[in-house]
Design goal:
Layout: E1 5-13, E2 19-26, H1 31-38, E3 41-43, H2 47-55, E4 59-61, H3 72-78, E5 80-90, E6 93-103, E7 111-117, E8 126-132, H4 137-144, H5 153-161, E9 165-167, H6 179-185, E10 189-194, E11 202-209, H7 226-235, H8 240-258, H9 263-270
Antiparallel strand pairs: 1-2, 1-6, 2-3, 4-5, 5-6, 7-8, 7-11, 9-10, 10-11
Helix pairs in contact: 1-3, 4-6, 7-8, 8-9
């Protein structure tokens, strides 16, 4: 099965902090593109990884065959159409640049979007840039007219949670604000990734795809460490209210990612034989 993600790379600063080197990559059927990538490095402002480093923000590159992309011939041979680069920071220090590449074999389906909030200008997320399939023109128009506050829609929920959020069946999902436009465009799946940067600005990248090209063949949800504290509290016969609180935090985190909230059902099942708070 073809997925929206065709290639994923991780670029990291070298020991001197002057160049970005390839730390690892997932190339699947684009092995020749991988070999070209492993032979390269990028200075600040060079290529897509270097541009992300220089501008300290995510960047969508809609066409790999023009502009500053230095691996155009290899990308064309591998069937790669567009890419998005995302910086990873620890405080003000750049630790890595992630680059996600999408293929050209199914250009009609899906989209990549970049949402931005500058708190000095607006309380909302607005669309900065996007790469849309030919069947998503109306969806693109709806996106450019949409403003999302913290917690609203797919990008807003990722902003609020400060973590990845996945949504399924977008055309019928009440939490997805552009449901009608998604249904008309054949977009079913959505993944939002927040991208913290040193400035006050907030960035969120969304990946949207149809049924024939899901975002990825598999995604995993890792709950917060609160679950470990819950187990320790139960085994040590500590206060059940504290265990319930930790478990609620963990299940809420899972619910935010998958678009569902199962806290009460889970707590009722686990603690049905206990009397909490008495």
């Amino acid at each position: 099965m073809k997925t929206l993600f065709q290639v994923i790379e991780v670029w990291v600063p070298d020991s001197d902090g002057h160049l970005l080197e390839l730390a690892d990559g997932l190339y699947c059927n684009a092995l020749d593109f991988g070999r070209v990538s492993r032979s390269m490095c990028f200075g600040r402002g060079e290529g897509l990884p270097g541009r992300v480093w220089d501008q300290a923000r995510p960047i969508i590159l809609k066409d790999l065959q023009g502009g500053y992309f230095r691996r155009a011939a290899a990308a064309k041979a591998a069937g790669l159409r567009c890419a998005v680069g995302m910086p990873v920071y620890a405080g003000d220090a750049l630790r890595a640049v992630l680059v996600f590449f999408c293929g050209a074999d199914n250009p009609d389906a899906g989209a990549i979007e970049l949402w931005h909030n500058d708190p000095r200008v607006t309380p909302d997320l607005t669309l900065v840039d996007g790469c849309y399939g030919s069947s998503a023109e109306a969806f693109e128009a709806a996106s450019r007219e949409t403003f999302m506050n913290r917690g609203a829609g797919l990008p807003g929920r990722a902003w609020q949670r400060e973590g990845a959020v996945f949504m399924d069946d977008l055309a019928h999902n009440p939490k997805f604000l552009r449901a009608d436009a998604a249904g008309a465009a054949g977009i079913r799946y959505g993944l939002a990734l927040p991208c913290p940067v040193p400035a006050q600005d907030t960035y969120v990248v969304t990946f949207l795809s149809g049924s024939s090209t899901p975002v990825a063949s598999r995604m995993e949800c890792w709950a917060r460490a609160a679950t470990e504290r819950t187990i320790e509290a139960l085994t040590a016969n500590q206060t059940l209210e504290l265990a319930a609180m930790d478990l609620r935090i963990a299940t809420n985190a899972v619910g935010e990612i998958v678009g569902k909230t199962t806290t009460e059902d889970l707590l009722d099942s686990i603690f049905s034989q206990f009397c909490i708070g008495k």
